[in-house]
Amino acid sequence: MITKRIIPCLDVRNGRVVKGVNFEGLSDVSSPVALAQYYSDCGADELVFYDITASAEGRKLFSDILTETAGKVFIPLTVGGGINTLDDFDRVLKCGADKVSVNSGAIRNPQLIEDAAKRYGSQCVVLSADVKRVDGVFRVFAKGGRENTCMEAIEWIRSGVERGAGEIVLNSIDTDGVKQGFDLEMLQKVCEVVQVPIIASGGAGCIADFITLFQTLPQVDAGLAASIFHFGEVAISDLKREMARRGIPTRL
Amino acid sequence: MVAIIDYGVGNLFSLRCSLEKIGAQVVVTGDAAEIERADRVILPGVGAFRDARTKLRNTGLDTLVCKLAQQGKPILGICLGMQMLFEKSYEFGEYDGLGLLKGSVKPLEGVIPADYKIPQIGWNALQIERNSDLFRYIKNGDYVYFVHSYYATDCADSLIASCDYGAPITAAVQKDNVYGCQFHPEKSGNVGLKILRAFCFEEEKA
User: Fold this and answer.
1) So what CATH class is A5-245?
2) Would the pLDDT of A152 be above 80?
3) How many CB atoms lie within 10 A of CB A23?
4) Neighbours of A230 (CB within 10 A)
5) Is residue B157 situated within a structural domain?
6) Which region holds residue B99: left if phi is over 0, alpha if psi is between -120 and 50, else beta?
7) The whole model's pTM is what?
8) What is the interface pTM, i.e. ipTM, of the complex?
9) Cα–chain center distance at B129
10) Chain B: residue nearest A117 by CA?
């Protein structure tokens, strides 16, 4: 039986993890390599590195830490942030990424999804969408959730899959940071229109939120979160033990 | 020395790192002489069958792999590399594989229940069907990472492990010195490293 995946997301700026607290046995919490290794040891099923660097120097540092991580951590690694061209795909794949997540870059140029899927295969192309309700309609937001594109979100995601995206990360801006649970309504809508794996993001505050997610929407494949893992509010090992205890297929 | 065959398909960085991690001497190469000198050979692969098969043929490495396999050199195909070990693939047409293993490669579509997603992406448990030295450091039910839309079938004589994806799906095969994994051992955490160790080294005698 295929298992539900738990995916911590690490925001990286200038080669360092942006937020985090000290875990026992982890001295440098802002080292992406050390944190990735730590999460992998705790049972994370996959990792997302999100590059929020703006400068060329920062980009270079990101490539370096990516290479170092891929050389030490042997679970799937997705990279996102600043992916606008096939050259960007090439750059991060060469450093050891397995999948590449596109967001604003695909909004500006939807053809990017198609071109990347053709060159690297759909399994490599993740479409990440930041979605927010505006007057009762799900809208896609670009530039890290700052800019309303006015595109209808469910249709955007459906067309992205048609173009070749092999996986969807659905990040609800409405529930993000609120810690009251995933956006089940929004996720349900996306589940109805696409057949590729769906990763839920935004809103997890505690273990129960993941249990509710997988029990309510068995079509959702994975749960992604950042701060609750980094701040130690939820330990991945505890979360996965509880999922297994509740009968959710889990890799222990 | 373990040679990872580089024929222009996919990213071999993680695979090389995972082998270095277990202490194997690794060379990533498309050079026939270098591959021939290696004690063990890994045939990787991602993407479409036809493209990979064409590239392997154009480099002439397909006949080399067959020759080495017949000489008894341990060969491990990973993912699409495993699929190419079989006689035929029905991915977007009908194509000849290397024919080192009996069986063919067919779409998951139609074989698994309609509500199962394609590709299968994620961690699934190995159901060990037959003892193999590839599994000497792992146990039945251990999890490995899959990404695939096609699978090997009619391969009863080489099947050593399957996984349950709504139907039993070929996960690993072995016939004498020819091995194959549908999953990615280099992305399967410690379990994957143990499988690679079993392939790369002789069994330690007590």
Assistant:
1) alpha beta
2) yes
3) 17
4) 22
5) yes
6) left
7) 0.94
8) 0.92
9) 17
10) B47
